[in-house]
Write a structure and sequence with these properties.
The chain has 5 helices and 5 strands. By secondary structure, it is an alpha/beta fold.
Length: 122
């Protein structure tokens, strides 16, 4: 199933489906970036299920590298879904998610409804 471009909270968002190739490298981030920019999307909604397992192990630096690639080009990133298990195992992940959610470029959202609420306030 292909990603969709949706208006979420008045913002064009490339919404990835939970099925598909895992996102787990800077090259994957560049592919997403190209797809988002080509579609005129300002944000990417990445389901937690599509993130490679190592993405949420912060010592791998994958999450930060993926986020940075997108942010450098002005595309926001929302990790969408339940991260309670990885967060229960990692204080660093909880802290990073908390800091990200205070900003305006990388967010952690439980679902698209939460993302819509946050994007509506931009």
């Amino acid at each position: 199933m292909s990603p969709e471009i949706l208006q979420v909270g008045g913002v064009r968002v490339l919404v990835l489906t939970p099925e598909g190739q895992a996102v787990g490298s800077e090259a994957d981030a560049l592919d997403l970036l190209g797809e988002a920019l080509g579609a005129g999307a300002a944000w990417i909604a990445l389901p937690v299920a599509r993130a490679a397992p190592d993405v949420f192990r912060l010592e791998t630096r994958l999450a930060g590298a993926i986020a940075q690639k997108l942010v450098n080009y002005g595309v926001g990133l929302a990790f969408v879904g339940d991260l309670s298990d990885p967060m229960a195992r990692s204080q660093a992940l909880r802290d990073w998610a908390h800091e990200c959610n205070r900003g305006r470029q990388v967010w952690f959202a439980a679902d698209l409804a939460e993302l819509e609420t946050r994007l509506s306030s931009l």
